[in-house]
Amino acid sequence: MKVMSDLPLPPSPGAREHSSIDLANSVIRLPGGKTLDALDTPGSTTAWLIERGLVGDGAALQSYCQNRLVRLREDLREVFTARVTGSAVDSRALEGINAALVAAPNASLLHYAPDSGFFRSLDHPATQLIEHAMSVIAEDAASLLAGDEAGLLAQCEAEPCTRFLLKTHGRRQWCSTRCGDRVRAARSYARKRQQANSESA
Ligand SMILES: [Zn+2]
Q1: Is pLDDT of 108 > 80?
Q2: 108 or 150: whose pLDDT is higher?
Q3: 35 Cα to the center of ligand 1, angstroms
Q4: 6 domain-assigned
Q5: Residue 59 main-chain phi, psi, to 5 deg
Q6: Residue 93: is its pLDDT beyond 70?
Q7: Which residues make beta-bridge pairs with 28?
Q8: If you measure from the C-alpha of residue 40 to the centroid of ligand 1, how many angstroms do you get, rounded to a whole number?
Q9: Residues contacting residue 137 through CB under 8 Å, at least 6 positions apart
Q10: Has residue 119 been placed in a domain?
Q11: For residue 1, is it within any domain?
């Protein structure tokens, strides 16, 4: 049985390029109070990581690994929210991201094979699968937040959605066309109400 880890919304702008946005968005709130979590079991967590090439095909992660990734997601959501709203950054969230950054070696080692010559590859023992995935995601978050694109980071305006995105289309501030439609519908409803109120006044 294939475990589905995909959520019923396409990746937000920027999530394909940034694994940290992708992870932050792996839990979504839908209208009506429903929450969908792509990392709600060890199996769905493994599938999520395999689909993104962050662990190999045969990997099977335990709930311990799932919990660590979920904690990193909370830390990411915390610092992203601080960046977007201008609020104070929680130092514990920052520590969590830094711990993930150094949990696995990020340097590609130099190898030599007689037939192909020199090549580089990142070595990560099977026991460090989750550490490796977390360090890649944390590295992405660190370079995003400290880099030129940090000012583009935004959070979807279509309540109750809380997904993050990179504002690549001017003022557009929603994560998907479905959320955009909801924002427009809410605005037009508010306008009509206001109109009706001023007419009846
Ligand atoms: Zn949204």
Answers
A1: no
A2: 150
A3: 13
A4: no
A5: -65, 150
A6: yes
A7: 36
A8: 20
A9: 19, 20, 23, 54, 72, 76, 100
A10: yes
A11: no
CA 181 to centroid of ligand 1, rounded, Å: 10
Strand partners, 164: 155
Q: How many domains does the chain have?
A: 1
pLDDT (tens digit per residue) in 2-51: 444 456 789 999 999 999 999 999 999 988 889 999 999 999 999 999 99
Contacts with 103 (C-beta within 8 Å, 6 or more apart), sequence order: 128, 131, 134, 135
Centroid of ligand 1 to alpha carbon of 164 (angstroms): 8
Average pLDDT score over the chain: 90
Q: How far is the CA of 127 from the centre of ligand 1 (A)?
A: 36
Residue range 136-155: mean pLDDT, rounded: 96
CA quadruple 90, 91, 93, 97: dihedral sign: positive
- CA 77 to ligand 1 centroid distance, Å: 15
Tens digits of per-residue pLDDT, 167-178?
987 777 899 999
Describe the chain by its helix, strand, coil percentages, rounded to 5. Answer: 50, 10, 40
Residue owning tokens 């605005």: 187
Structural domain that includes position 180: 19-200
Check residue 1 and give its pLDDT: 39
**From the CA of 87, how far away is ligand 1's center (Å)?**
21
Domain with residue 83: its CATH number is 1.10.3300.10
- Rg of the chain taking only CA atoms, in angstroms: 20
Whether residue 28 is contained in a domain is answered as yes
